[in-house]
């Protein structure tokens, strides 16, 4: 069915206001206003003349593993380290025809060159129709040589701030709470789209990770399948216990690797960490995704997550590159056993040293850790003490 976007603003949790809009080519744009916003209620119209949206990418199945690889040639044209005056995520000006027409607090919009999507039944908005979408998860699980499917789904950009530089960790606690509200709102909306099986919010930070824009932002991917990493975790749950995430949390809270703890969330370096810097952040209560979190859980998360990121940046004299990956349960299965959690990883193993995935890790998936997790946890606790002063 068509995705209806109301014109009227919508009140969300913590005083955040959602203002739906559209870009010139029909892509969805949503503003999320802080509770203490200084912005007015009006929003400028995107008056750009844009090219037609690219054809939806095609997935190819690797018959050796069953994995689906999206081939998205349109991504070759995306912005690559543009000068500040041409920041595509900054509010539009007369000299910068960016992606966001108005000044904003937080803005979310559909990626112009997505790896997945548009989703099914969105051709009414100028989006290309899906020529050969997956039938269901059973269809995707069926192996065969030369199998392809249209890469339906959605890729969205989440702008944390109109400022030109920064990251999630440089935001205020109020702004962090607004972003978390946006994550929850988008998780619910994307989960309701036809063809979407899993929703993944994340932030890539630093050129060492491959970031091509210095603007403080993250992304949300809505996949047409359950990702390989999640499938491995579901296999682990099936082989151990449906309460595996709670078992892990209890195990870590009783050990030496906890780095930060609140009433509703705990952060820890995992027992079998792969990366030189790896921290997991997990809610104490079972929730499948951001949409299931309470106001109290979101409010505490804003404070603890900012402290965690600032502690990570206190480890060295320069900002630490990282991937902040928010793992959520699949949309239609394992909702009672797969728990929302953050996995924050960094390849940084020293002030001027990075861990590169060489033969054993990259080719065989056989990891060799550089730093004992207990040592990493102790260093991070010291950094968090400095960051909280």
From TrEMBL:
Which molecular function GO terms apply here? nucleotidyltransferase activity
Pathway(s) this gene product operates in, as recorded in its UniProt entry: Carbohydrate metabolism; galactose metabolism
Q: Does the keyword Nucleotidyltransferase apply?
A: yes
> What is the main EC category here?
transferase
Matching InterPro entries, A to Z? GalP_UDPtransf1, GalP_UDPtransf1_His-AS, GalP_Utransf_C, GalP_Utransf_N, HIT-like_sf
- A Pfam family this protein belongs to? GalP_UDP_tr_C
User: Which keywords fit this entry according to its UniProt record?
Assistant: Carbohydrate metabolism, Galactose metabolism, Metal-binding, Nucleotidyltransferase, Transferase, Zinc
Provide the E.C. number(s) assigned to this enzyme: 2.7.7.12
* Cofactor(s), names only, from the UniProt record: Zn(2+)
Question: What are the residue boundaries of the Galactose-1-phosphate uridyl transferase N-terminal domain, all occurrences included?
Answer: 86-226
Show where the Galactose-1-phosphate uridyl transferase C-terminal domain sits: 244-381
Q: Which reaction equations make up its catalytic activity?
A: alpha-D-galactose 1-phosphate + UDP-alpha-D-glucose = alpha-D-glucose 1-phosphate + UDP-alpha-D-galactose
User: What PANTHER family does its record include?
Assistant: GALACTOSE-1-PHOSPHATE URIDYLYLTRANSFERASE
Q: NCBIfam families in the record, alphabetically?
A: galT_1
The family classification in the record reads: Belongs to the galactose-1-phosphate uridylyltransferase type 1 family.
Q: What is this protein called?
A: Galactose-1-phosphate uridylyltransferase
Per the UniProt record, the source organism is: Microbacterium kribbense
């Amino acid at each position: 069915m068509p995705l209806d976007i109301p014109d009227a603003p919508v009140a969300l949790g913590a005083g955040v206001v959602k203002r739906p809009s559209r870009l010139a080519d029909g892509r969805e744009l949503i503003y999320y206003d802080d509770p203490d916003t200084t912005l007015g209620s009006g929003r400028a119209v995107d008056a750009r003349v844009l090219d037609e949206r690219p054809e939806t990418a095609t997935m190819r199945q690797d018959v050796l593993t069953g994995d689906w690889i999206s081939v998205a040639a349109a991504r070759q044209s995306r912005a690559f380290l543009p000068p500040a005056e041409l920041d595509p995520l900054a509010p539009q000006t007369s000299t910068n025809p960016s992606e966001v027409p108005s000044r904003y607090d937080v803005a979310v919009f559909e990626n112009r060159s997505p790896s997945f999507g548009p989703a099914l039944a969105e051709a009414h908005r100028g989006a290309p129709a899906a020529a050969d979408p997956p039938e269901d998860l059973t269809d995707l699980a069926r192996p065969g040589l030369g199998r392809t499917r249209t890469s339906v789904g959605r890729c969205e950009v989440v702008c944390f701030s109109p400022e030109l530089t920064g990251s999630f960790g440089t935001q205020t606690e109020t702004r962090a709470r607004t972003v978390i509200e946006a994550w929850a709102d988008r998780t619910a909306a994307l989960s309701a789209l036809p063809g979407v099986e899993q929703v993944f919010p994340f932030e890539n930070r630093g050129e060492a990770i491959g970031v091509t824009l210095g603007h403080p932002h993250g992304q949300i991917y809505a996949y047409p399948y359950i990702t390989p990493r999640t499938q491995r975790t579901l296999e682990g749950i099936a082989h151990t216990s449906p309460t595996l995430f709670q078992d892990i949390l209890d195990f870590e809270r009783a050990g030496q690797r906890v780095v930060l703890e609140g009433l509703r969330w705990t952060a820890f370096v995992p027992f079998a960490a792969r990366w030189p810097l790896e921290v997991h952040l997990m809610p104490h209560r079972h929730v499948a995704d951001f949409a299931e979190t309470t106001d109290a859980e979101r409010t505490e998360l804003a404070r603890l997550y900012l402290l965690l990121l600032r502690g990570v940046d206190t480890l060295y004299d320069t900002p630490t590159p990282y991937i902040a990956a928010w793992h959520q349960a699949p949309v239609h299965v394992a909702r009672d056993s797969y728990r929302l959690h953050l996995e924050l990883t960094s390849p940084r193993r020293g002030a001027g040293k990075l861990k590169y995935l060489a033969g054993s890790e990259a080719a065989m998936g056989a990891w060799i850790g550089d730093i004992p997790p207990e040592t990493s946890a102790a260093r991070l606790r010291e950094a968090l003490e400095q960051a909280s002063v």
